[in-house]
Design goal:
Elements lengths: L18 H11 L5 H12 L7 E3 L2 E6 L7 E6 L5 H12 L2 H8 L5 H9 L12 E4 L9 H16 L2 H6 L4 H16 L16 H6 L10 H4 L25 H19 L10 H9 L5 H11 L3 H23 L6 H11 L10 E3 L2 E4 L4 E5 L5 E9 L2 E6 L7 H14 L1
Antiparallel strand pairs: 1-2, 2-3, 3-4, 5-6, 6-7, 7-8, 8-9
Length: 417
């Protein structure tokens, strides 16, 4: 998270001082987004109504003041690059040493962006890629709050061009680490999986790719668990961490259990965890029941607001990885599935429901409830909860394949609140 910073209030190109920041504004204003609301968003941004902006892979988020007593949650989504596109982009950066130096010096090389675009890798957003959303009742696309966030982001891009890399899927640390690895390979000093320096390790993807095929996946007898169990029998740790370390013996045991469970899943052929983003890893660890101190450390490491991080943990608890995906972004649903769900909810035998449809979400604003269709084809119940001065949508019950059951679960949770 970076501190809030008010955008300049005058001048037609006042939201960006760099060419790449202005390119962001140009993409925004050349898009198919509502020009009238963009204009109002410009005004909001100039007035400093956008709070601290958080950047995570594929998403920007901030609270934006409006006419209500509490700020609204606004977000802007941008498509992340594929692994193949990242390979192309990293190769383009590594091809010239000066490019890495320029990035570290806070500059985005023009020729890098041009070379990447020529190779089919859009680092800067295309006019149709910016995808805003907001918790306010305005169904415009975008609303003025999301538009304000779009404009305020240009200031942050001016300060740190690595924001573009994070938006495209990889953080500054991940990009620099990948560039160091490429440089080592070019100079013949790269470490292999077998001789990696102790304490540094290797990425799970590389370790799995280097597997020589001699490993036999554990059976229930050798692993000490029955089929379908998620827990792995481990020998308790007995050596406490050295004094002054920021973790406890319980923390180490929690990490050991998590590592063993993921290794078992990997041995069984489930490679999905190899591509987990750092935020997803942090949320998964937090959901295992870690200590409060460690929870706060994970929140700090992700750069998310504590409330946003807690919402993701709850989403994972109720809906698993699909629930986490639903909470992090709105998804493009199957129109037939959405139509069928809406029909089921409006049948005579069902309770009267006033629904609004948007993307993968069916919302009954008069009741403060919502259900979201996930990539697992299950419906994830949400309620609108007041937290201090802010009202947000929170996951509230386990996901289900039945939209009627999901809506009932959301209604029940709303009554409890």
């Amino acid at each position: 998270m970076t501190p809030a910073r008010k955008a300049p209030r005058t001048g037609s190109r006042a939201f960006a001082a760099t060419w790449w920041g202005q390119a962001w504004v140009d993409a925004l204003e050349a898009s198919t987004l509502d020009s009238g609301r963009l204009s109002r968003g410009r005004t909001y941004a100039r007035k400093g109504m956008v709070g601290p902006v958080t950047v995570t892979p594929g998403m920007l988020h901030a609270e934006v003041e409006g006419s209500a007593p509490w700020p609204y949650d606004a977000a802007v989504h941008l498509r992340v690059l594929t692994d193949a596109q990242w390979d192309t982009l990293l190769a383009a950066i590594a091809a010239q040493v000066g490019r890495t130096a320029a990035l570290l010096d806070g500059e985005m090389p023009t020729d890098l962006v041009d070379d990447a675009r020529t190779a089919g890798v859009p680092l800067l957003p295309e006019p149709s890629e910016l995808d805003p959303e907001c918790s306010c009742p305005d169904w415009g696309y975008p609303c003025k709050h999301a538009a304000a966030l779009c404009y305020a982001t240009a200031v942050h891009l001016d300060d740190d061009p690595f924001w573009l890399f994070t938006l495209r899927g990889r953080t500054k640390d991940a990009v620099l680490s990948a560039l160091r690895t490429r440089r080592q390979m070019l100079t013949g000093t790269a470490s292999t999986t077998a001789d990696a320096p102790r304490g540094e390790g290797v990425p799970a993807r590389d370790a799995f790719a280097a597997w020589n095929g001699t490993f036999t996946p554990p059976t229930p007898e050798t692993a000490g668990t029955a089929p379908g169990e998620t827990d792995t029998v481990l020998t308790p740790l007995t050596t406490a961490p050295a004094p002054g370390t920021p973790f406890t013996l319980d923390d180490l045991e929690a990490l050991t259990r998590d590592t063993a469970q993921r290794a078992r899943s990997l041995a069984a052929g489930n490679t999905a965890s190899l591509t987990s983003a750092p935020v997803e890893d942090a949320v998964r660890l937090a959901a295992t029941g870690i200590s409060e101190d460690w929870f706060h450390q994970l929140v700090h490491a992700t750069g998310l607001a504590p409330r946003d991080f807690a919402r993701l943990v709850r989403a994972l608890h109720h809906g698993g990885p699909a629930g986490l995906a639903v909470a992090r972004a709105h998804l493009a649903p199957d129109p037939a599935a959405m139509a069928a769900a809406r029909t089921a909810l409006l049948e005579p035998d069902s309770a009267e429901v006033r629904l609004r449809v948007w993307r993968n979400r069916l919302t009954a604003h008069n009741e403060g409830i919502q259900i979201r269709l996930g990539p697992d084809n299950r419906w994830h119940p949400y309620t609108r909860e007041d937290r201090g001065t802010t009202a947000d949508w929170w996951p509230c019950a386990p996901a289900t394949a039945d939209p009627v059951a999901a809506l009932v679960a959301a209604r029940t949770a709303a009554k409890r609140n």
